[in-house]
Amino acid sequence: MALLQAVSLGLLIQLARGSNLRPGEVVPVRQLLQVDRRRFARFLIPQALLGLGAGMLLNFVQLYLSQRFHLDTGPIGLILAGSAPLTAIVVLRAPAISRRLGLTRTIAVSQLLTAPLVLAIAFAGSLPLAIGLLYVRQLVINTQTPLSQVFAMEYVEPRERARLASAENVVFSIGFGGIGPLLSGLLQVRGGFELAFGVAAVFYVLAGATFLALFSRVRLPSESS
Question: DSSP string of 131-183?
Answer without folding.
Answer: HHHHHHHHHHHHHHHHHHHHHHHHHS-GGGHHHHHHHHHHHHHHIIIIIHHHH
